[in-house]
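Why predict the complex rather than its parts? Because the way molecules touch one another can change local conformation, and only a joint prediction can capture that. The input here totals 1288 residues.
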Amino acid sequence: MSVCACTYNIVLGILVLSGLVLLPVLLPVAATDDNGKSAATTSNGTFSDLEKLSMGNVKSKSPRLWAFLLALYWVSFVTYYLLWKAYKHVSGLRADALMSREVVRPEQFAILVRDIPPVPEGQTRKDQVDSYFKTIHPETFYRSMVVTNNKEVNKIWKELEGYKKKLARAEAIYAKSKTTGKPEGARPTNKIGFLGLIGKKVDSIEYYNAKINEVTPKLEVEQKVTRKEKQQNSALVFFTSRVAAAAAAQSLHAHIVDKWTVTDAPEPRQLIWSNLKIKFFQRQLRQYVVYVLVALTILFYMIPIGFIAALTTLDNLKKLLPFLKSTVNIAAIKTVMEAYLPQLALIIFLALLPKILMCLSKAEGIPSQSHVVRAASGKYFYFIVLNVFIGVTIGGTLFSTFKTIQKKPDSIVSILASSLPLNATFFLTFVALKFFVGYGLQLSRLVPLIIYHLKRKYICKTEAELKEAWFPGDLGYGTRVPGDMLIVTIVLCYSVIAPIIIPFGVVYFGLGWLILRNQALKVHVPAYESYGRMWPHIHTRILASLILYQVTMFGYFGVKKFYYVPFLLPLIILSLTFGYVCSQKFYRFFRDAALEVACRELKEAPNLEQIFRAYIPPSLSSEKIDDEDFQDALSQVSRSGSFV
Amino acid sequence: MSVCACTYNIVLGILVLSGLVLLPVLLPVAATDDNGKSAATTSNGTFSDLEKLSMGNVKSKSPRLWAFLLALYWVSFVTYYLLWKAYKHVSGLRADALMSREVVRPEQFAILVRDIPPVPEGQTRKDQVDSYFKTIHPETFYRSMVVTNNKEVNKIWKELEGYKKKLARAEAIYAKSKTTGKPEGARPTNKIGFLGLIGKKVDSIEYYNAKINEVTPKLEVEQKVTRKEKQQNSALVFFTSRVAAAAAAQSLHAHIVDKWTVTDAPEPRQLIWSNLKIKFFQRQLRQYVVYVLVALTILFYMIPIGFIAALTTLDNLKKLLPFLKSTVNIAAIKTVMEAYLPQLALIIFLALLPKILMCLSKAEGIPSQSHVVRAASGKYFYFIVLNVFIGVTIGGTLFSTFKTIQKKPDSIVSILASSLPLNATFFLTFVALKFFVGYGLQLSRLVPLIIYHLKRKYICKTEAELKEAWFPGDLGYGTRVPGDMLIVTIVLCYSVIAPIIIPFGVVYFGLGWLILRNQALKVHVPAYESYGRMWPHIHTRILASLILYQVTMFGYFGVKKFYYVPFLLPLIILSLTFGYVCSQKFYRFFRDAALEVACRELKEAPNLEQIFRAYIPPSLSSEKIDDEDFQDALSQVSRSGSFV
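Output of the joint prediction:
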């Protein structure tokens, strides 16, 4: 949570500090120049009041441009300062959380071993892993858990769980029907055909009980088969202390580097079992294939988005579909259409993508769910920045440009100069739409609330079902973060060109912060805690936005024929240096556990058995309540074998 | 040693296997084509028999070029196969050496800690380091040694050692003069002024004794001051086992990454004490500054080298200095000049560079001497490949090209096509000269032998002096390896264009292998053992040569208007993939110690005290024979403080 709140804090900080200086200084500077009348004759009519307040209104070569240049420096330095402070802060928070003396986190005691070589003759996989790690870590090795292929067993387990749920529900209905007037009650029934709509009618409680009795032994057999025969080339290894696990996770184990590769273990609920068996070079191959696929996706989506943005400006619509002219010229409709038409198409369009990116990221072979989300989020960020921000700016410009260029090819530069502020209007409304629609509907949880009450009234019968219905799910970092980052990019990039966008940004992030804070504390249940691992990701992307901003401004000052443009070069170099220094100083701690943090002793000696059990997937534990002889069954070796 | 021998083995293997196929196939294919008469009319006269055997003799678009294309594939696959085998072999050798159960290597028990934060109030540096590591590694921490600034103490120690040597020498002379005829002997004398040439004459034995008595207490005082007041922000930390040290060296210690940075400790005699205090970001800054300096050096040397190569072709000399014409036209002189004139300038020129590169590499802040040598060697490789190989090829061509281009600009392509084989002659003689001059003089150790005998007769008087005179020094990896790599590059790049170069390469590396084997076993004393750490370096450079070769050939086939050139693209991609896979599979083990290797127990428990003492520089040990209370004095804390 702290990362997300921290992001909102720092973005708010950047925007407020920038706005305090930029708004009172740049707006008068821009408004009192009279470029709008003399130079922008090619696009008169579309120039509204907003553009008078932007940098587009300032004459070329004007000394007033110095104010905008200095404003850029101010925004950059504010960003550096706040980013630095935030990185230090989050790094400290992460250290505090990880060195906590109260909370036992199973993942701090385990490492994940992949690419284990084939089992030697006459040994089991478990023997192999145990003897290997016992030799290397004789004093700190606790035991190991060989990863198995759980596909079959999960399927059967899910079936069983489904029947159990339905049984509970049927019993609840039956219990409710036993009113005082009718003490014997009405036994619920159901049809056994497709979706319970066709087929023979049976007594639900009896039917589900029979089904459970039928599936349970099947599950037990499959569990045994899984444990014994479906062992993979991967294992979890547990240590007796946090510092031993942290050191082991960072050390090279085998002298052939692609064997016995170790990493820190993810949280139990984050572990993606099906990805663990993928081999070293296959992982890398998959990664590159996914990167190429994503790059292709980004490039091919560019075309339709650019096209839509270009088509759906009102002027173009009128030209292309003349029969609309009469309708569109009504003032009210015109305003609405002008503001929301191009953006709506875009927003609907964007909703399709995140799921695909999640699947692609998972296919890379990443072992942890949160890492998959980070990877997908990164891809999504590049997608939306490239397509939405750059695509719209260039696409919207190109369409009207092509025709003009044919007539007088030397006018490209002046067209670009006037089109950048024009797109400011587009993005201003985009930001506004985002916080009205986005926050208004999604984050007020109106929709889930209605669904919850409907479910409660008509569907949910047991306590467990009620709980599940209310479970609000995760905060959806995967799409939320890149979405926010897009707003950051847009607001930053236009902060100097059209400073009026800053208050919109402040409102967006202010509201976001309030709602998020409220929800994070009261409603949302985080699916996992990654202790700020998201932060370096966000930091990099805010910095990338800043660099994009500086480069854009470099080009824009050039278009304005400002001779002192080279003064921006040191700023870009400074940004790159800042990013490098930050990643060198802080990043590795977000990847590896620092020993000085891991070495704090826990208040009580941790229950190693419990830590071990936390990693057993529910489908593999013999009963809901763990039975005592479980660990022997799982490992297929005597218990003494894995103890030191 | 094994790395160097291995390099020669594999290069020999590549050349022999390539030669066996290329020579019998390509030479007839090239010689029986008649391109030489029809197309190369612009440069007739300089075409000798050699060029008839090269690819330049094959007609453009000829289907015979298929043979050359397939030859390129053959050479590449031979190289992949041998490189892969060699990397595996060296990796195994390194593992064997590091897991040896007999030899105790101090560096396997120590780690180097840099960037220690300022000492907190009321603690000594030693306390700070000890308590930090004792908390993290309570069971395996042995003790620590704080790094000091030894500049002053080294100076005094060297002065003292000088006097001791001179005293020993004077005593030896005195003892020799006591012949049976003159039992009292003649006491040697010397002058105390500049270089012993002027000033008062004194009795040497008395004088040096007095000097030693004068300097010894000065040294003792300085030693105390150094230990107490000249402590730096760096330390060596010793562990009780190899596996503990290996794991600690690879683990992040502080959560602010640029504090308490750890690396594996270099061998004691390799440690560069003066570099240890340099801070994290300063090291990186220094590195980039050095890279820029080296890049500038490479680029600015390019101009004179290209100029010299262009000037010193015989034809150009005749044109520029017409008065030489009569002399030069004598057949014998012409042959000699033609062959050796341009190369001699180049070889002398190259002799200047290695020292500068060593200094620059040391200035990067690298803590280990062998690492400095590797770094310098890498820079030197890029220098000579860029300047000698590419510089000469392009430079030699450009000079004659400029004039022709002015007349008919479309002839550039045909000139390039004919000039590549022309340069083959240059490089053929370059390789020949290298092995005659290089091996003949340098490696036969004729010069050192003469110097040794002269010294023995006239200068050396004591045993120690004799030993020092014979001490042949290191093998000079820094310049030897890049020199060899240049030959590899040249021979590889011309192996298909002019296969006749292959036997020369075979002779060069065959002779080199014999001499090196002989010397390495009998004469040279390695200054340090890095257990194959040089290999990844050599591997990368052989592979870089191969890629340069493939790219060059890609261009050359294009010049020959061969339509199937794109068939070379998969080969280049394959080379890049091969390099990537090798570095992923093997490289990390050459940087970090694998725990499975470090965990082998030693035959006898190691003497930790002795390991610790191995790192005390001679200038800081109180006597030549270590005194017992030394460790307390060095650390300024009671001995019990550093034990666990």
